[in-house]
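Task: sequence design from structure.
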């Protein structure tokens, strides 16, 4: 844990101060409905802390990939437990009127930052403009803190800056994975090998066991000459066969595959696949074979699902999560899709820590730092 980073608790007097609070409300949506609220819920303690201390709070966040999504559903969700205003366009004069009219303990949310292209280009004029709404900046958007955007790294150049309670909690827990207890099991799933390769290289050195699932496992199979039929693979050129020689990598023994005859999936041994098969999940024998390892490890770090879970193939991920929830090991789940499944299974209290980050968690684990947190550290407290 970086002790020299100032948190919201270090701010002496918040009464009446305008606090720009950058949060990550980038939650999964289906037809305008919030599918899963973990990121919002985990930000609530910081909002409540600021309200209690009578700050005037301006919340900034992005949602979705571009300007097409709105934070309005998030505002409606927040309004079930607190009173929150909404500014549909923070570039208009009314934004200043709303902020200046905020009572002590009042909260307003600005619309999706990405309605302005200058957010993602980290434009300094835009960062300065956003900073003009506040006296203090608090970054509690852990899941966005790996992005060098105006609201993350720009604003701290103009205001005294601090991290919130969520980022503090994330850094404390994720640093457990950096100072690991042994035996240590690292589970890597999902896809996008190029973003996960730094992590794999790092933990090849320190993990006692590495279990690989998802599309990443297909990449390994392909590189070792195993027939994987029509399975998804990443396009890149890493020589994965060479990594397997190190000996601490475990790949699935069996898989759920779909083909023209079996749309719902059938279990096959990995070495019996045909040209028509597509791997969609890790099979039951694979999960069973991990049981002896789960019994002896002291730390488990997991990022990325084991199957094509958007297509409904989540059984491998579910079974492995259940097995982990029954162990005595410290278990850390790196956000994203796997976290959504943990929420659904209601086993949250049996997992030591669930990160709200996807890419941010990967970046922090690979590099031990995040641009958003570094920007707060660099800020000179005026």
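Answer:
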């Amino acid at each position: 844990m970086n002790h020299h980073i100032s948190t919201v608790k270090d701010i002496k007097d918040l009464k009446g101060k305008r606090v720009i609070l950058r949060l990550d409300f980038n939650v999964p949506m289906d037809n305008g409905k919030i599918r899963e609220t973990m990121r919002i819920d985990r930000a609530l303690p910081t909002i409540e802390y600021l309200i209690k201390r009578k700050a005037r709070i301006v919340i900034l966040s992005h949602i979705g990939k571009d300007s097409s999504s709105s934070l309005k559903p998030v505002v409606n969700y927040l309004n079930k437990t607190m009173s929150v205003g909404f500014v549909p366009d923070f570039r208009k004069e009314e934004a200043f009127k709303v902020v200046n009219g905020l009572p002590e303990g009042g909260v307003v949310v600005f619309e999706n930052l990405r309605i302005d292209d200058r957010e993602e280009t980290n434009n300094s004029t835009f960062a300065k403009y956003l900073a003009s709404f506040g006296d203090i900046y608090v970054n509690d958007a852990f899941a966005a803190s790996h992005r060098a955007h105006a609201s993350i790294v720009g604003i701290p150049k103009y205001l005294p800056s601090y991290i919130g309670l969520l980022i503090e909690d994330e850094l404390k827990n994720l640093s457990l994975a950096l100072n690991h207890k042994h035996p240590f099991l690292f589970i890597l799933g999902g896809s996008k090998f190029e973003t996960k390769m730094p992590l794999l290289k790092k933990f090849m050195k320190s993990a006692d066991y590495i279990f690989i699932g998802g599309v990443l496992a297909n990449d390994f199979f392909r590189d070792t000459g195993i027939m994987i039929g029509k399975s998804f693979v990443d396009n890149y050129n890493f020589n994965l066969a060479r990594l397997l020689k190190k000996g601490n990598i475990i790949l699935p023994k069996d898989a759920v595959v779909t083909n023209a005859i079996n749309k719902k999936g059938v279990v096959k041994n990995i070495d019996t696949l045909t040209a028509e098969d597509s791997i969609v999940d890790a099979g039951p024998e694979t999960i069973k074979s991990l049981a002896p390892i789960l019994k002896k490890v002291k730390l488990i770090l997991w990022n990325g699902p084991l199957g094509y879970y958007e297509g409904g193939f989540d059984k491998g991920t579910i079974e492995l999560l259940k097995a982990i929830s029954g162990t005595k090991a410290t278990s850390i789940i790196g956000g994203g899709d796997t976290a959504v499944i943990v929420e659904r299974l209601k086993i949250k209290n049996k997992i030591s820590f669930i990160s709200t980050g996807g890419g941010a968690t990967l970046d922090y684990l690979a590099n031990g730092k995040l641009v958003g947190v570094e920007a707060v550290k660099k800020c000179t407290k005026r």
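Residues 38-52 form the longest helix (15 residues).
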